[in-house]
Amino acid sequence: MGFIRDGVWHQGDIPVVDGQFIREPSVFTGFITKEEIQADPYRFDLYVSYACPWASRALIFRQLKGLESYIKVHAVEAYMGEMGWSFEKPEPNICAKYLHELYLKTPDYHGKVTVPILWDKQLGCIRNNESSDIIAMFNHVWDDVAKYPKIDLMPMGQKQEIDALNDWIYENINNGVYRTGFATDQAVYEKECRQLFAALDELELRLDSSLYLLGDSLLEPDIRLFVTLIRFDAVYVGHFKCNIRRIADYPNILNYMKMIYMQVKKTVRLQEIKTHYYMSHPRINPNQIIPIGPETDYSK
After folding, report:
1. Which end of the chain lies in a sparser environment, N or C, as judged by fewer CB atoms within 10 Å?
2. 280: enclosing H helix or E strand
3. What is the spatial distance between Cα 22 and Cα 33, in angstroms, rounded to a whole number?
4. Tens digit of pLDDT for each residue in 137-193?
5. Considering the entire predicted model, what is its pTM?
6. Strand (E) positions, the chain?
7. What fold, for 2-140?
């Protein structure tokens, strides 16, 4: 973890209050217009970590909409050390070695340093670092040049139920694994863990009669859920102590996850995911041992 204050990078620990993990909001929430993309569809770059579930959302939307030719990706290293996210080689826009250098290009910025980032090459600044905004823009703003413009992962006719389901997934599962894993109080941990698995039990029942969460089409809530599910057995069961059950113990969820994996597997790097989590949280795993398993083939 890390943040910028008074124009200076500071190493920071996981934000916990009364034993409970608190996620801070994103700051850059500027929206890109279709007119900007019509003028220059190559104007924006995407900065990600393949380990980060929030960044993975953006990678998946970029792939499914067919935007790889227009939105270049710059990925940080798996291990997040004392200086935060870093690049193997200086990235091409400002020759930054560390991700926080991109944030420092914004005068008076105060806040956390995270991925994903949508970088404006014309203005030389971060335009957005909120994954929910970025995937919404990928879904329609680039449609004039997208390879698959007819794919709509957020149909307006289903907006109300999509938004409600997104909120439920975030509260109970996406952020639930973090609230469980970063808890520093036994009672808080047990409460969060049981709430997480109650949600997974509910999902198992829901998927007994539905191909995807909202019927027969892959939509935004499925992608939001998938990025947590694909990390669950490899990281969250052991590292975050989310160990009442595994995803492998939920037949419906497991088959559902495999079905999505086969569509987006080039955005998934499981070894990088394991390396990041097990090495970058020394408070949780001080010896930084990376487990060998699980040996699960999600392509079958």
Report:
1. C
2. helix 270-280
3. 32
4. 999 999 999 999 999 999 999 999 999 999 999 999 999 999 999 999 999 999 999
5. 0.95
6. 2-5, 8-11, 16-17, 20-21, 44-48, 72-75, 111-112, 117-120, 125-128
7. Glutaredoxin (3.40.30)
103 is a catalytic site residue: no
70 catalytically annotated: no
The domain segmentation of the chain, as residue ranges, is 2-140, 156-265
Rounded to 10 deg, the angle between the 186-206 and 251-264 helix axes is 80
Q: What is the dihedral angle through the alpha carbons of 250, 252, 253, 258, rounded to the nearest 10 degrees?
A: 120
Asked if the model's pLDDT at residue 37 lies above 70, the reply is: yes
For the record, the structure tokens of 256 come out as 């559902």
* 9 pLDDT tier (thresholds 50, 70, 90): low
Give the angle 170-173-178 at the CA atoms, nearest 5°.
Answer: 95
Selected from 3.40.630.40, 2.60.200.40, 3.20.20.140, 1.20.1050.10, the CATH number assigned to the domain covering 156-265 reads 1.20.1050.10
8 forms bridges with which residues in the sheet? 5
Is residue 102 packed enough to be buried (19+ CB in 10 Å), middle (13-18) or exposed (0-12)? buried
Structure tokens at 115: 């991925």
Q: Using alpha carbons only, what angle is made at residue 84 by residues 82 and 85, rounded to the nearest 5 degrees?
A: 135
